[in-house]
Amino acid sequence: MGWRDKAKRAKQLHRPSLKNWECDGLYETFPGYVEKVLGTDDSASVSATSSVIPVLLDSKSLSPPEFWQQYEGERIPCVIRNLPTCSPIAGRIGDIKPSPADDHSRSRSKRSRDNDDAMTATDGCACEFQVWPALRRWDPENMKSDPSIRNRLFKVGEDDGGKSIKMKMKHFLRYMQENRDDSPLYVFDSAFDEDKRAKNLLDDYTVPVYFEEDLFHLVGERRRPPYRWFLVGPKRSGTTVHIDPLGTSAWNTLVFGKKQWVLFPPHVPKRIVKGKGLVWKDEDDEAIHYFMNILPRIKNRAEASGGAGDHEGFACHEFVQHAGETVFIPHGWWHAVLNLTDTVGITQNYCSSRNFDEAWVKTRIGRKKMAYKWLCQLDIHYPHLAHRARTLNERDDFIMKYDPDNIRKREWEEERRKRDKGEAKETGREKKRRKKRDTQELWNGKRAM
Predict the structure, then answer these.
(1) Nearest to 73 by CA among 321, 357, 325
(2) Helix or strand or coil: residue 242?
(3) CA gap 298, 296 in Å, rounded
(4) pLDDT over 70 percentage in the chain
(5) pLDDT tens sequence across 179-225
(6) By three-state DSSP, how is residue 416 classified?
(7) Running DSSP on this structure, what letter comes out for residue 308?
(8) Cβ–Cβ < 8 Å for 172, 188
């Protein structure tokens, strides 16, 4: 079975109701759209000031404390240039020490022979930088001949039951080159670290020091939800607008190609971001349709409103991400992505002390058992954050389902409820017996008369 049959089967499983993936003819019109987007891309002229979203930064001169305080702490989206070529090495930045992270929560890079380590001054500290092997290895042409990648199955979608649909990379790369689909399949794989061969991908990049504090690592790799994805996206593929789950922030590094992004601040209502009332009947909701059709209507409606009513404070930030750039998306920001060209990249979600409050509130509801395990580990490793979590619980009158004290309390209440119910049933039976005895006595009395 060749790549065409593999792709056909994957598409049938992923979207069984869609019989013709080329029905909108976007293969023909998309080049004109890309030319227009790239023609208006002014990212090269963006100044590194907080008045511009996203802020343009450079890893060669950006210290971790500066990023944490001025950008992550203030929830300001950023584009950080040169991380794959000048990635600061943790523990080599003078006296700057990010919060400790477990070995399983970060990617480890093996020093390749062609690494060009450099020493540069950043805020008076000597910094050592490292080049990602991914720059060479993740090139689509190189992946075609890489034995540890080309024959490995990667997730390209899900069926209606949520089961992963997979294709071998060698077949997917042919599909990426040859397809004419409006919205192609997209390698969005979070389980690549479970395969002995593909796990080598973890050695091809290093989690940037700016994002190394990941508090979710405390619950262990098996218990935490998916948080890192290897991405291979054909042109016209992408992700529609969303907020990352559990109050997490994210970073997304592009190794190959170009992506278009749109960001909405957290205060913009969901109905506005999703374009409620602006999606035509039978119109698809894939990323390409969102960017080419729905987003322009959203912006036109916002402009026509004059910033009144639901559009008060409306803001929409569009930009192009180029190879070698890393996008930082703060927690709570709406975002969508469209691949303007064939792309390869890596993205991870994380929780740091800067977004702990939001992550805790979301996790204690969405992942109840994980939240309790997390709290127990916070008691050991980060007591101040454990105290903060309990303070938030008290503020919101929130009772944790898996807390032992609450479990015992619920068990005691359940036993009392059953006991009361049993007593109530017994009382009912006694009433029937008394009624029967009274009736019999009354009958006997009448007979005696």
Answers:
(1) 357
(2) strand
(3) 5
(4) 79
(5) 999 999 999 999 888 777 767 899 999 999 999 999 999 999 888 99
(6) helix
(7) -
(8) no
Domains of the chain: 3-353 (2.60.120.650)
pTM of the model: 0.83
Closest CA to 347 of 221, 235, 250: 250
Structure-token pair, residue 46: 């963006």
Burial 41-78 (b: 16+ CB within 10 A, else e): beeeeeeeeeeebbbbbebbebbbeebbeebbeebbbb
Measured between alpha carbons, how far is residue 72 from residues 23, 53, 251, 345 in Å? 42, 13, 11, 22
Report, in angstroms and rounded to the nearest whole number, the Rg of the chain calculated over CA atoms: 28
pLDDT of residue 348: 97
In this predicted model, what pLDDT tens digit does every residue of 235-256 receive, in sequence order? Answer: 999 999 999 999 999 999 999 9
Residues in the chain: 449
Helical H runs in 225-334?
270-273, 287-289, 295-305
C-alpha pair distances (Å), 261 with each of 53, 67, 228: 12, 21, 19
Which H helix or E strand runs over 257?
none
Instruction: Label residue 92 exposed, middle or buried (CB < 10 Å: 0-12, 13-18, 19+).
Output: middle
DSSP-assigned letters across all residues of 127-174:
EEEE--THHHHTSHHHHHH-HHHHTSEEEEEE-TTS-EEEEEHHHHHH
Cβ partners under 8 Å of residue 334, min gap 6: 241, 242, 243, 263, 264, 265, 266, 268, 273
Listing DSSP states for 195-206 in one string gives STTGGGGGGG--
Query: Which positions ≥6 away from 120 have C-beta within 8 Å?
Result: 60, 86, 126, 127, 129
Cis-peptide into 296, omega within 30 deg: no
Q: What is the dihedral of CA 328, 248, 188, 335, to 10 degrees?
A: -60
What single-letter amino acid sits at 432?
K
User: From CA 429, how far away is CA 360, in angstroms rounded?
Assistant: 50
Note the Cα 90 to chain centre separation in Å.
24
Token pair 């006694």 is found at 430
19: tokens are 């019989």
* 46 vs 296: CA distance, rounded Å: 23
